[in-house]
């Protein structure tokens, strides 16, 4: 029920690929079941409050070419602008590069989502292209920005730090 509430919230949903869709509660279970078997999806949780805050994951994982697409959202607006998105992205990049051995992780972001673009850049993503006027809201058109990061550009390696404890 929480995801349905968030995804149907225009202030949040306008930034997501699912923005033009209204997702009924009956469809939430189906979507969550599909996500549980496609790619790698993780809940973002405040453990102290035992509260669901959002979701992040790697989709369209290609183990032959070692690529994937990143998706993330913080649904609970009380947690916006607190650095949780950056922390979640760094963790999922660490998982992608150091656990499942990916080489390239890309994402798509709407050109008007300046806060997300700034976060992605802090995490090391670089703009690789813009699909011009790909998003339309009312009579305004916006670009869709494509960004990626390579394993060689990623600075974090939690795995090595964890393994050091066992040596």
Automatic annotation (TrEMBL):
One Gene Ontology term of the molecular function aspect: acyltransferase activity, transferring groups other than amino-acyl groups
Domain of life: Bacteria
PANTHER family named in the record: GNAT-FAMILY ACETYLTRANSFERASE, SPERMIDINE N(1)-ACETYLTRANSFERASE
Family matches, as Gene3D superfamilies: 3.40.630.30
Keyword rRNA processing: no
SUPFAM superfamilies: Acyl-CoA N-acyltransferases (Nat)
Pfam families listed in its UniProt record: Acetyltransf_3
Keywords (A to Z) from UniProt: Transferase
Organism per entry: Maledivibacter halophilus
Location of the N-acetyltransferase domain: 1-152
Entry keyword annotation includes Transferase: yes
Protein name per UniProt: Protein N-acetyltransferase, RimJ/RimL family
């Amino acid at each position: 029920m929480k995801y349905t509430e968030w995804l149907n919230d225009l202030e949040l949903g306008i930034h997501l690929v699912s923005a033009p869709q209204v997702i009924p509660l009956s469809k939430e279970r189906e979507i969550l079941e599909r996500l549980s078997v496609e790619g790698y999806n993780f809940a973002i949780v405040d453990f102290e409050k035992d509260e669901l805050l959002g979701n992040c994951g790697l989709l369209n994982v290609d183990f032959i070419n070692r690529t994937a697409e990143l998706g993330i959202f913080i649904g609970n607006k009380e947690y916006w602008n607190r650095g949780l998105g950056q922390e979640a992205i760094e963790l999922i990049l660490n998982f992608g590069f150091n656990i499942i051995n990916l080489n390239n992780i890309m994402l798509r972001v709407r050109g008007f989502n300046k806060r997300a673009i700034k976060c992605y850049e802090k995490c090391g993503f670089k703009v690789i292209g813009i699909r011009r006027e790909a998003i339309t809201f009312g009579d305004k058109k916006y670009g869709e920005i494509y960004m990626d990061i390579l394993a060689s550009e990623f600075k974090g390696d939690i795995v090595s730090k964890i393994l050091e404890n066992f040596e």
